[in-house]
Amino acid sequence: MSIILQAQNVEKYYGSKNNLTKALAGVSFEVEKGEYVGIMGASGSGKTTLLNCISTIDAVTAGHIFIGGEDITALKPKMLAQFRRSELGFVFQDFNLLDTLTAYENIALALTIMQRPPSVVDEKVHEVAGLLGIEHVLSKYPIQMSGGEKQRVASARALITNPSLILADEPTGALDSKSARILLESFQRLVRDINTTILMVTHDAVAASYCDRILFIKDGRLFHELAKGESARKEFFDKIIDVISLLGGDDNDAV
After folding, report:
1. For residues 173 and 180, what is the distance between their CA atoms, to the nearest angstrom?
2. What is the pTM of this model?
3. CA–CA distance, 147 with 172 (Å, rounded to integer)
4. Within the chain, how many helices (H) and strands (E) appear?
5. Are strands 221-227 and 213-218 parallel, antiparallel or unpaired?
6. Are strands 88-91 and 165-169 parallel, antiparallel or unpaired?
7. Please, which residues have CB within 8 angstroms of residue 138's CB and are 6 or more apart in sequence?
8. What are phi and psi of 239, to 5 degrees?
9. pLDDT tens for residues 2-38?
10. Closest by Cα among 210, 220, 207, 172 to 41
11. Directed axis angle between helix 177-194 and helix 147-159, to 10°?
12. Residue 162: CATH number of its domain
């Protein structure tokens, strides 16, 4: 399988010379196309900083990040914005939907901005809505949807441009357990059925147990890596809990 994401000795420092904080200290890993990878770690471990660097929201201090073979750490701002728009999809904890647009319009927005023909937009919206089981809410506004429906609409919006990589930041954080399960099962279907690549930051071991592989971050470094392999989800969950206990995480880092 091809490598979609490659991080090479990524470092990120904050502060001045006399008061320097190492948020990331030489993180290296790879993600293959069609993988569903989770990133876990206690608060302040560097997991969100890592996601911000991969998403181009923040710049690395040292090292390189390649997405689809492109060194994003070497791109100038204009090219970076274009790359972000075409190659990355984002799913946030708080949905970030536009309240004045219907679900259909929220999902279609990126393609509309790109001036795709209406027939192409309509076909693509219904395609991704079908994959995520949200065709019944396409005419609704966000205020008329449940939290789980909003998050699946946000996921469809991230998916519609066929990005190389979808980045999900605590996507189940604002959801009840049933809505979270439906969303995570939808992510699994995207990976299985259309070879989507997902990188998800989460503190929730239940959410993480849906992934193919987990990267554990501690003090800005890659602490451990855990692959699901042929394990059942419950067995993988138990293994995740064991690693969290080694990380020194508290109850909030597990559920």
Report:
1. 8
2. 0.90
3. 10
4. 8, 10
5. antiparallel
6. parallel
7. 102, 103, 104, 107, 125, 126, 129
8. -65, -40
9. 999 999 999 999 887 788 888 999 999 999 999 999 9
10. 220
11. 20
12. 3.40.50.300
